[in-house]
Amino acid sequence: MRALRKLFALVWKDLLAEFRTKELLSSMLMFALIVVVIFNFTFEAGSMATREAGPGLLWVAFTFASVLGLHRSMVHEVERGCLQGLMLAPVDRGLLFLAKAIGNIIFIFIVEIPTFLMYAIFFNLDLTTGLDKVAVVFLLGTIGFASVGTLFSAMSVNTRTREIMLPVLLFPIQVPVILSAVNATAGALAGQSWSELGNWLKLLVAFDLIFIMVCYVTFEYVLEE
Amino acid sequence: MSPAASEVASPPAIEVINLVKSFGTFYALRGISLTVPAGECVSIFGPNGAGKTTFLRILSAISRSTSGDIRINGLPLKGQSEKIRRQLGVIGHQTFLYDDLSAAENLKFYARMYDVPGTPARVTQVLEEVGLAKRANDRVRSFSRGMQQRLAIGRAMLHDPSLLFLDEPYTGLDQHAAAMLTSWLQKLRTERRTILLVTHDLIQGLAMADRVMIFLRGRIALEEKAANLEAQQFRALYFDLVAKGER
Q1: Are the beta carbons of B194 and B14 closer than 8 angstroms?
Q2: How far is B70 from B68, CA to CA, in rounded Å?
Q3: pTM for the full model?
Q4: ipTM for the complex?
Q5: CA distance A38 to chain B (A)
Q6: Cβ B62 vs Cβ B93: under 8 Å
Q7: Which end of chain A has less Cβ packing within 10 Å, N or C?
């Protein structure tokens, strides 16, 4: 119960600070929307090319905007030594990871909603079908991306070239998430059933579970070194 | 058990045996051993790079040692670090405060992290003690450096720690904050709390301490009772040791 209260306080602290400044959300959202707008100039709405490239385009916007957010959110912790302050507190370091990852998942998901709506408008998408499946795919993809991203942002934040280090470290590990998220998004938008999406969703769930556990255990070592 | 007997039985507040910390081929600490009884105030001096901050970081369980044993209040740091952290108050170069939260929100947040009972009343009390009660709802971003450091002191006091680790606590303080810190440290000394103070201020550090240590290149180059040292003599000794160490 104590751990839950601490987890809630840690997440609340991140949300409160962000909703006051909107520093993270505004830059992430701006970046994601720019990507969608630029692709809009290239592809014709409703064309075959749009249907084929659209899901990839969406995840390009999500992943790059996420990297921006993951990096900034960890820099905020380091700037005033707050990460040290948290490490000094009698809190399980795995809990620190969970809180930071939950905060990041919320921020990324908030950015994904308007980005997807903008994409739907620009590319003349029918929003009446497959929206629930798209939401599940986005959520699972975001959980996987944000969990590993939180660990790697903690790893890279103390390096000299941290802005470059994070994507360099993160993207190779994230291949299974991006691959299954793009394919599942394409399937969901094409009106496939849950069973047709099953394999991609299973892969996403498996990746999320494995990496949340790995990150939970290893976060302590990353912080202390 | 009589008070005298319990005093004899109580373990030292800090016990460090042959502590080594290396970063690759560079050795920041080369076999530090020391024992600090409960209630003692130890000032640690040394030039930059002597290993003082690394030493405090390891004792605070922020960083891992390469080898060596540490016990805090009888508990081994390896395996019991969460229990130990509950007993520690740390003031460092940085404030550990969130700029976009108010003073009260920062303290409430840390109170939750330390499971402080009666949080609202304790936060109000601490804010009054550090003279920031009127600014309780202002964001830390709007505070001067001195005010931020006062709030950082409040944050370190919040859970009433028995051990205090202070790493250059006077850095960047205005006179008001420095005076407040000094009186707070004196109060803590009268309460017989254990204090490790890392400072470059030889006179202030000596005046505050029961015992002084000089770190040089990751080793303890001098360990002496403060009562045996006179300020000017200590200054001369310090500069002599540092000059020899750098040769």
Answers
A1: yes
A2: 7
A3: 0.88
A4: 0.87
A5: 34
A6: no
A7: N
